[in-house]
């Protein structure tokens, strides 16, 4: 069912939903940006329409909702382990189609990869419902159409926001009752058809190990500074490191957490005796690039990258991910011409 | 809590045996269903966790041979018999022992690389009829670094085991071989090459060059197995640290046939 809701009525809907759900959406923090007089757009809890920024791309993705930057796994008391509790709150997230697709990628790692499910992820993930915001224009650095992640049918509510009103398609019975008294309409979601940036992802069979040594990666050894921003903003990066802490006032007690980690950052692969793998930034760029558009697909049949373009948006060295894929295509072509 | 893979089980240390100045074997009171070559995650609350191969196991115990090199392992150095450790696992795959039955098996190990293969050696020590012959190429940095000296002596006394030991650097008392493991590969009897299986475990460079050395003697890639070490945080395919290409070393490894291992690029 689809409904037409006046903007002035939407806060009412939000507050009803808030009785059962924590609501997360893109928000704009005035003057909190990296440069003076710039704002920071990121995910945060909201309770009114006014707080939601529908017109900008967030720096950070909504993945924090299921994969927090730091997350306590359990507590220690001597040699006893106490599993961290789950508050059990249900969550509604306002996001775009590419980001729903990013959750699918996280699901692959946390729920399907390896011998067991990740119970911490699972229990957060089970409580999440999506409110997808129609996105037919995209932003300058987006390339979701190329990645096939511009569409989704995995949502509870799909909305189109205009100056006067908000059109809502509601698929979830549990949420429907909040909308019942609204005017019904024949709204159905639209998806973006063409981005400003386009790129062709190489076929699996075209990527061979000789490309691992290609010259194209060397450029990144000079340009990349290993800051890891591209990892932290990516809605599909899922790596983390274990970390133990003890409390100052009682040394017996402490906790084990996981914290985000990234393959561009020093120390990510470092082992005892100083063995370190992928020491050059170019090797790390190669590793990340091929993970996003090659080996994830080899393993799970879908590319990891959803084409949100955030890695390019935040890179202090203006490294473009689409640019890297294009260079890879070029290297494949040249290899073929030579051979 | 049974379905929470991250929470360790608390186990007691039954015995501690020094192997060298920095390597100690800890025997832990736990019944674990282990395959030769698998590893466990060892925890000290408030300090951290690290992956350690099971160097031997039996009813009611597992052995871990641990080199004290950092945060967790140095803390383990302070523990005594009766103290407790956290254990989760076992994780990863093991060596395909069934492939080695009836073969002329060569095991080449460098340094702590001997720990993950020790249980296989002991298996074929006890079940001598299951292999046609067993040759051990063991390399250590120096005589003080030699691990499992008593057990090496035990293997040397066995009729069906040929032990060739070498150190990178000798000392005044050392009368044995000096040189790298790669230098003693040609001392293996390479008759009937087709019936051989070769297991190589040690630092990455050692595994690479030792494999190449064996291939010079017409050993085929599919006859060689290696075991990888990578930084690991979870051991169960979630944290990403150990990934090479599309392969998770903690899940599909650490043991690989060389045909697969040679294609894994860091
Ligand atoms: C499958 C597997 C089996 C292993 N088996 C054994 C074994 O039988 N005996 C043994 O002594 N060691 C073994 N190791 C190595 C052991 O895990 C590391 O020495 C240990 O993690 C160091 O932990 P730490 O906290 O004491 O050191 P840290 O303080 O964490 O680190 C000291 C140094 O070790 C590095 N390091 C961190 N994690 C690892 C890691 N997973 N592997 C190597 N270095 C790391 C750090 O970057 C640093 O350079 C194994 C590793 C793997 C992956
Ligand atoms: S954001 Fe740019 S500079 Fe920083 S690690 Fe990523 S590619 Fe390198
Ligand atoms: S465009 Fe960059 S940030 Fe976005 S999903 Fe792809 S790799 Fe991640
Ligand atoms: S150790 Fe975490 S994925 Fe392998």
TrEMBL record, chain A:
Keywords, alphabetical: Iron, Iron-sulfur, Metal-binding
SUPFAM superfamilies per UniProt: alpha-helical ferredoxin
Pfam families membership: Fer4_22
UniProt keyword annotation of Hydrolase present: no
One MF term in the entry's GO annotations: metal ion binding
Record-linked InterPro entries: 4Fe4S_Fe-S-bd, 4Fe4S_Fe_S_CS, Helical_ferredxn, Sulphite_reductase_A
Residue runs in coiled coils: none
Residue intervals of the 4Fe-4S ferredoxin-type domain: 214-245, 296-324
Domain of life: Bacteria
UniProt-recorded name of the protein: Anaerobic sulfite reductase subunit A
Source organism of this protein record: Orenia metallireducens
Lineage, uppermost ranks: Bacteria, Bacillati, Bacillota, Clostridia, Halanaerobiales
TrEMBL record, chain B:
UniProt GO BP: pyrimidine nucleotide biosynthetic process
InterPro entries xrefs: Cbr1-like_FAD-bd_dom, Cyt_c3_hydrogenase_gsu, Dihydroorotate_DH_Fe-S-bd, FAD-bd_FR_type, FNR_nucleotide-bd, OxRdtase_FAD/NAD-bd, PyrK_electron_transfer, Riboflavin_synthase-like_b-brl
Entry keywords, A to Z: 2Fe-2S, Iron, Iron-sulfur, Metal-binding
Cofactor: [2Fe-2S] cluster
GO MF, any single term: flavin adenine dinucleotide binding
Domain FAD-binding FR-type, residue spans: 6-97
Pfam families: DHODB_Fe-S_bind, FAD_binding_6, NAD_binding_1
Residues binding [2Fe-2S] cluster, per UniProt: 234, 239, 242, 250
Cofactor detail note: Binds 1 [2Fe-2S] cluster per subunit.
Chain segments annotated as transmembrane: none
UniProt-listed PANTHER family: ANAEROBIC SULFITE REDUCTASE SUBUNIT B, DIHYDROOROTATE DEHYDROGENASE B (NAD(+)), ELECTRON TRANSFER SUBUNIT
Protein name: Anaerobic sulfite reductase subunit B
Organism listed in the record: Orenia metallireducens
UniProt lineage: Bacteria, Bacillati, Bacillota, Clostridia, Halanaerobiales
